[in-house]
């Protein structure tokens, strides 16, 4: 498979795991937009949120829980942002569903 994140999850491209379990894998973003910028991806290849259905509810909830767990472990008690870019117009650049966990600084609104 040519998917960048699938290669990272399977270990073909090196990364430093921040969190991992049977459903997901988290690692530091190579181009951080905040002092803490972690990508959380499902181990299963899902191109984007557009490609999910009711059968993915538990997985999606688990990924959000994992993001919160990472935030707790990183000491982000003052707050953080979780972002899911979806599709070209949504700013998605890698066709593998992923959550961005951003923290360690004050976030502004609107983000884009």
Key phrases:
about 110 residues; globular; 2 helices; HIT family, subunit A; about 20% helix; alpha+beta
Q: Summed up, what is this model?
A:
The chain has 112 residues and is an alpha+beta fold. It has two helices and five strands.
The oligomeric state of the chains shown is single chain
Quote the CATH topology. Answer: HIT family, subunit A
Total E-strand runs: 5
Quote the average pLDDT.
96
Distance between the termini: 31 Å
Unreliable stretches, pLDDT < 50, 5 or more residues? Answer: none
* SSE pattern: HEEEHEE
Residues in helix, %: 10-25%
CATH superfamily: HIT-like
Largest sheet: 5 strands, antiparallel
Radius of gyration from the alpha-carbon trace, in angstroms: 14 Å
Strand order of the largest sheet: 1-2-3-5-4
Q: What is the CATH class?
A: Alpha Beta
Question: What's the structural domain tally?
Answer: 1
The CATH architecture designation is: 2-Layer Sandwich
Supply the helix-strand structural class.
Answer: alpha+beta
Q: How many DSSP helices?
A: 2
In what range is the share of β-strand residues?
Answer: 15-25%
Shape verdict: globular
């Amino acid at each position: 498979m040519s998917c960048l994140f699938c290669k990272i999850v399977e270990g073909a491209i090196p990364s430093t795991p921040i969190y991992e379990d049977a459903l997901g894998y988290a690692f530091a973003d190579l181009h951080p937009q905040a002092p803490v910028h972690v990508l959380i991806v499902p181990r299963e290849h899902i191109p984007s949120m557009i490609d999910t259905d009711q059968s993915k509810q538990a997985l999606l909830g688990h990924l959000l829980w994992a993001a919160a767990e990472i935030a707790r472990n990183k000491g982000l008690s003052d707050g953080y942002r979780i972002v899911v870019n979806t599709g070209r117009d949504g700013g998605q650049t890698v066709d593998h569903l992923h959550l961005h966990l951003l923290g360690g600084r004050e976030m502004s609104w609107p983000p884009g």
